[in-house]
Amino acid sequence: MNQLNEKVSRELLKKYDRPGPRYTSYPTAPEWSADFGPDDYRAALNQVAAENDPLSLYFHIPFCKERCRYCGCTTVITQSSDRVERYLNQLDRELELVAAHFPARKRVMQLHWGGGTPTHLTCPQIETLFGSIAKRFDIDPAGEIAIEVDPRVTSEEQLRLLRKLGFNRISLGVQDLTPKVQEAIGRNQTAEETISLFNFCRKIGFTGINVDLIYGLPYQTVDNFAGTIAEIIRLGADRVAVYSFAYLPDIRPHQRSILLAWLPSAEMKYDLFATAVEKFQEAGYIQIGMDHFAKPTDELARALGEGRLYRNFMGYTTRSTRDSIGFGMSAISELAHTFTQNLSKIDVYGAAIDSGRLATYRGWRLTMDDRIRQQAILSLMCNFVLQFDALDAQFNLNSRDYFAFELGQLQMFIDDGFLTVGDDAVTVLPRGRIFVRNIAMVFDAYLRKSGKEGGPVFSRTI
To answer: What is the pLDDT of residue 450?
Structure first.
């Protein structure tokens, strides 16, 4: 049995179940400053324009026909085709503004459409957006061209078009196949819909099919969640994300329709995730970071073995460049040791773009200390290990001295059997992997300075 399935006491779960970042970035977005504006973003774009590495592009398609009660994404609920067309025109203008900084650097090895529901777009709209991108950048057909879809609203016609355009990886939002759970979260998606769409994607040649699951939803039990997992394994998903439900009703009012009494306890959430680890590993999947599982032949598993795994706002990735550009409302870019985020309200974002301005509203330029801590946190979150020699070589420092305070703070995790600290590395043990966010928080200087740990900004770690 996997060590994660060793029973963790209720006291330990209570001790570590606290709000904390998921570390899709460091520093985390609440630290970013509105003083970082369009001029700073333009400077970052210009700084990397002459580099030869390929780019990673992300497009935020925020539209959904209705909002799922559990959702934590930045979405726009609409039935208006005109609103969608207006947004696509604005994406085209933003592409023009950004591409002007890249007269020579055009190659794209990773393209990702996220949402919202990207397949809210009609087939002509999908072709329009893809054409806008291809007009400004060279999309490498050997790269990863990915899209997130909702099986309830995605047609075979759309899937055929996506394959024709070159999309090769697709992520299916499933969350849970249990009808009672689906009813509670407002997402009635039959197993038949999911299975049919999955099989069609495989039939027409998608080389990577991902499935997203969530644990900690209303009325989930070990038995019914194990049933969902068994079906996903039977289908043969190449990659599975098993996310913890972030219940933040004070920040996301639509979650108030989910009652706290419906949710599993922290102890049950741990058991749900332990079940996922056990079942997927028994089926031959490799655990990737804290919440992903991949077949040994999948790119994520290969990247883990080769030390190429990275983590960003799209989750775990194999991307070959750290220069990632986001387009659309709320989209985030990471390049030249900066983070940049677009305006998060669709009308305000649109007004900025329509006036010929970049839609930047906040960002951050990483200090050297930020970069060192970012790498330490990434190493823990991606590989469950922090190698001192590698960090020393990368930043020309003595990491044991640099992190002397932090290493002292790890003693409680050592005492609880979650990690070891040796002469050469900090190593997170299998039993401690579900607590890796808590471990990473030790290296977060901003939490310590501001006293934000335990505040309402972040979801709970268990």
So the answer is: 66
Q: What is the pLDDT of residues 282-316, one digit of tens each?
A: 999 999 988 999 999 998 898 888 878 888 777 78
Domain boundary among 327, 360, 390: 327
pLDDT at 452: 55
Beta strands in 280-414 (DSSP E): 286-288, 292-294, 310-312, 315-317, 324-327, 332-335, 338-342, 360-365, 385-387
| Tokens 């989209």 belong to residue | 331
Instruction: Tokens for 279, please give them.
Output: 């079942």
How far is the first Cα of the chain from the last one, in angstroms, to the nearest whole number?
Answer: 21
Q: Look at the pTM and tell me if it is higher than 0.90.
A: yes
Tell me: do 37 and 67 sit in the same domain.
Answer: yes
For 255-281, the pLDDT digits (tens) are: 999 999 999 998 999 899 999 999 999
Q: Which residues form the domain of 162?
A: 22-327
- The string over 344-362, giving b where at least 16 C-beta atoms fall within 10 Å of a residue's C-beta and e elsewhere, is bebeebbebbeeeebbbbb
298, 327, 356 — which closes off a domain? 327
Instruction: Tell me how many domains the chain contains.
Output: 2
Query: Are 375 and 294 found together in one domain?
Result: no
Q: Would you say residue 355 has pLDDT above 70?
A: yes
Cα 274 from Cα 268, distance rounded (Å): 10
Residue count of the chain: 462
Strands 208-215 and 338-342 come out as unpaired
Instruction: Say which amino acid occupies 303.
Output: A
Report yes or no on 105 lying in a domain.
yes
Amino acid at 343: L
Of 231-240, 287-296, 312-321, 437-446, which range is least confident? 312-321
